[in-house]
Design a protein that fits this description.
The protein has a three-stranded mixed beta sheet with strand order 1-4-5. A three-stranded antiparallel beta sheet has the order 6-13-12. It has helices spanning 2-8, 42-49, 83-91, 122-129, 156-161, 177-180, 196-205, 232-236, and strands at 36-37, 53-56, 61-63, 67-71, 77-82, 108-109, 139-142, 150-154, 168-169, 173-174, 182-183, 214-218, 226-231. With 237 residues, the protein is an alpha+beta fold. 24% of the residues lie in helices and 20% in strands. The longest helix is centred in the C-terminal third of the chain and has 10 residues, at 196-205.
Length: 237
């Protein structure tokens, strides 16, 4: 995400070092990085993925890892594990999946999220998301008249690359949220009745899981009243 943001600002040739959060292995009240040892358990990994990390405490800039390095006893990096690696072993039965529905889970509720409409400026929406501590990555887009209805979703990478870049439409106006959103007909909608195992199959195996970190939860697919977003950390919790 940091690389994408700097590239969208025209800084593709700058060194990586100024962008990274440096690893500090000493115990900290506000950790800035996460890692796993080679003998870590799945429980250890899930705990690490759910750990809120600090990039800039003064700016309330918190984030969560979607891939975590695995290190040996000398702190040399030997591999990396992503959240999808854990979801896959849940699907293949190595780790059991609770027999629950989305209704039974704690997921990111609408009132805790940054929402947008088609007329909003991506720059403003991105700046609002920096202070969110819920780990939100994708932005739900709501109807301008019936503000309960979901009409689209802006994936994380689209918001980042349009954050500072002055994208022009027909050389007349700068791009809005509506220009970069994915319309609802192309989204994998989930409802409170969706079983966790059903959602995971789509989340891990569907092409959309390569684009979005979360799926929208709506009251029903016929009338998509927006309820919230559900992603990998909600599953891990």
């Amino acid at each position: 995400r940091n690389l994408l943001e700097e590239m969208s600002n025209g800084n593709a040739e700058m060194p990586v070092e100024p962008l990274m959060v440096k690893c500090n292995t000493a115990p900290q009240a506000q950790p800035t990085c996460a890692w796993l040892r080679e003998d870590a358990t799945i429980r250890d990994a899930i705990k690490a993925f759910n750990q809120c990390l600090t990039r800039a405490a003064a700016a309330n800039y918190f984030f969560y890892m979607s891939a975590i390095p695995i290190v040996d006893d000398d702190f040399n990096s030997v591999s990396v594990i992503s959240f999808k690696d854990i979801l896959r072993i849940m699907l293949d039965g190595t780790v059991s999946i609770p027999a629950i529905t989305i209704h039974d889970m704690k997921y990111m509720r609408r009132d805790d999220l940054v929402n947008a409409n088609v007329n909003h400026d991506p720059i403003i929406i991105k700046s609002q998301m920096r202070i969110s501590q819920f780990g939100q990555r994708d932005v739900p887009v709501l109807d301008t008249i019936d503000k309960n209805l979901l009409i689209g979703l802006v994936p994380d990478h689209e918001l980042i690359t349009n954050y500072n870049k002055k994208v022009m439409i027909d050389d007349k106006r700068r791009a809005t949220i509506g220009d970069i959103m994915t319309p609802i007909q192309f989204l994998k909608l989930q409802t409170p009745k969706t079983r966790l195992d059903e959602m995971l199959k789509e989340y891990v195996n569907d092409d959309q899981s390569k684009i979005y970190y979360s799926f929208p939860v709506v009251k029903s697919k016929e009338k998509p009243e927006f309820l919230g977003l559900i992603g990998y950390r909600d599953v891990f919790r």
